[in-house]
Design a protein that fits this description.
Low-confidence stretches: none
Strand order of the largest sheet: 1-3-2
Radius of gyration: 36 Å
Mean pLDDT: 85
Oligomer: single chain
Largest sheet: 3 strands, antiparallel
Shape: rod-shaped
Number of helices: 5
């Protein structure tokens, strides 16, 4: 990208320089034409102008080709950049998601908690935090193995999502423990949510 930027800057500089030179040439030739008295002088000036305009057109065509090539490279870079950006978004999402349950993970929970605590400090809104632990999960794991335990955790994660509001945050805090952030909800209201 840096190389293309430098190349484009160089091409733009060339265009400016060519235009300046052509402008100077036109001014000089205009003054010369004003002072011509004979047909031969006019023909000489015309020949100079034809040569210079032809050279200008040739240089313009070369620069247009360079700009077209640079534009193609920029289009390719833009496409690659979009793919890279999409991939970064996917990686970021996975870095904040528990792979097994697809709930948010502890890192995402801690980030959101920090944001919510900041809001509580600024606006004084209530916030409730919960930790939920599956009773006797170790017994399930021992009896049915990790595959059975994983199935229970996945099912539990799907079920727990239906209890809370869309702006509450439910995260797998570790193993069979879920952590929940309930913004703008006092502890009495949160308790009634759990009794559903």
């Amino acid at each position: 990208i840096s190389e293309i930027r430098n190349t484009l800057a160089r091409h733009v500089g060339e265009v400016i320089a060519h235009n300046d030179q052509f402008g100077v040439l036109l001014s000089v030739e205009l003054e010369a034409l004003k002072g011509t008295v004979s047909i031969k002088d006019v023909d000489d000036r015309r020949a100079i102008l034809v040569d210079e305009v032809s050279l200008f057109i040739e240089n313009h065509a070369k620069l247009s080709e360079k700009f077209d090539n640079a534009s193609k490279y920029l289009t390719m870079i833009e496409s690659d950049n979009q793919q890279f950006s999409d991939e970064l978004d996917r990686v970021r999402l996975w870095s904040l998601t528990d792979e097994l349950t697809t709930l948010s993970n502890r890192r995402a929970f801690m980030q959101r908690l920090e944001d919510e605590v900041g809001r509580v400090g600024r606006y004084g809104y209530p916030i409730t935090l919960m930790l939920m632990d599956l009773d006797k999960f170790k017994d399930i794991d021992e009896k049915y193995g990790h595959v059975g335990g994983d199935a229970v955790l996945k099912s539990y994660a799907e079920e727990v999502l239906t209890i809370f509001r869309h702006h509450d945050m439910i995260a797998n805090y570790g193993g069979e423990i879920c952590a929940v952030i309930l913004p703008n909800l006092c502890d009495k209201s949160a308790h009634s949510v759990l009794l559903q």
